[in-house]
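Severity: low
Component: inverse-folding endpoint
Summary: output formatting inconsistent between runs
Steps to reproduce: submit the following structure tokens with default settings.
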């Protein structure tokens, strides 16, 4: 092995004085069958692996045996509470079932999955695009297990967890307009329009209560924590500040709470704040966040993927509805 180069399986075989086949068999973790490797030989191989610092190429091994034992978790950003909770749940549950989770941000999951790097994919970040649809179809053709969180997709060789957020958003606005006339909104407004219905629910709730839409009470975060924090500071320092803020994501709501604290305001006595998502972080915040969202679903999503990997799910796929509701907690009164 040349200085500075990564050790190879051939280096391990040389150091252990065994064949490449023996090293491959020991590292695969296989047992039984007609091949018998003595314990001293196995120990010698593993000692060489440790001494050299050899790391097997999981993707290459997977291609050889048709299985990688890897599951890709596709999320948008680890700064977002919902995505962070999905990643944390998958990282906790998957190893218990023999799978190694790989967390991928944005659209990187498509290249990774198409390269054969994973046996399964949980798509929690899904821009509604033709390209993504084609990726899902091709992966289904290749028998890669998939679970997608999407309100619009239909199963097609993969499973769908379908958020139903409209009823929960309506419940939220009915609740807020009972006690408030000046209700601000920090909206995500991302280019893919995935939270368009959330802002539409805000507009519809105001209209139902006979409250005119006041554009001065609307801010955009682009789903970036720093912008959400600044937006909240601006709203809370208006000459006539709002008495409630609806945030289209829990991340924005948590930033709004921090902004209120910086200004010396009490939550919920001086300002009431509502998020969307029902994230674990929101539930554990001080005070716990009032939010619109499903009951905890992340364990359900991982179990759906494990069922598909095990082959117990219908080949054509299933669509599991996920009703959302208002979870009243410590950032609102009443």
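Observed output (run 2 of 3):
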């Amino acid at each position: 092995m040349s200085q500075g180069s990564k050790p190879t399986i051939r280096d391990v075989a040389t150091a252990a004085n065994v064949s490449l086949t023996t090293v491959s068999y020991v590292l695969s973790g296989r047992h039984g069958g007609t091949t018998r490797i003595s314990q001293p030989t196995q120990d010698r191989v593993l000692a060489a692996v440790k001494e050299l610092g050899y790391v097997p190429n999981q993707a290459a091994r997977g291609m050889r045996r048709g299985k990688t034992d890897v599951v890709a978790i596709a999320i948008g950003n680890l700064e977002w509470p919902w995505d962070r909770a999905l990643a944390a749940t998958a990282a906790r549950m998957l190893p218990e079932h023999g799978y190694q989770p790989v967390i991928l941000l944005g659209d990187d999951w498509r290249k990774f999955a198409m390269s054969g790097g994973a046996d399964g994919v949980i798509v929690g970040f899904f821009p509604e695009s033709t390209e993504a649809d084609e990726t899902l179809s091709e992966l289904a053709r290749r028998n890669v297990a998939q679970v997608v969180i999407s309100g619009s997709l239909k199963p097609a060789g993969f499973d769908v967890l379908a958020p139903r957020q409209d009823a929960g958003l309506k419940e939220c606005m009915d609740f807020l307009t009972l006690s408030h006339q000046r209700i601000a909104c920090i909206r995500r407004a991302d280019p893919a329009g995935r939270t368009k219905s959330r802002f539409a629910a805000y507009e519809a709730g105001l209209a139902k209560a006979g409250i005119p839409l006041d554009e001065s009470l609307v801010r955009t975060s682009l789903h970036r924590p720093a912008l959400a924090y600044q937006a909240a500071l601006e709203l809370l320092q208006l000459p006539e500040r709002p008495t409630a803020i609806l945030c289209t994501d829990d991340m924005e709501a948590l930033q709004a709470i921090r902004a209120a604290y910086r200004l010396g305001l009490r939550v919920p006595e001086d300002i009431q704040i509502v998020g969307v998502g029902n994230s674990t972080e929101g539930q554990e915040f001080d005070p716990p966040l009032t939010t619109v969202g499903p009951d905890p679903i992340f364990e359900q999503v991982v179990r759906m993927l494990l069922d598909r990997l095990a082959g117990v799910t219908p080949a054509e796929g299933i669509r599991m509805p996920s009703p959302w509701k208002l979870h009243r907690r410590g950032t609102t009164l009443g």
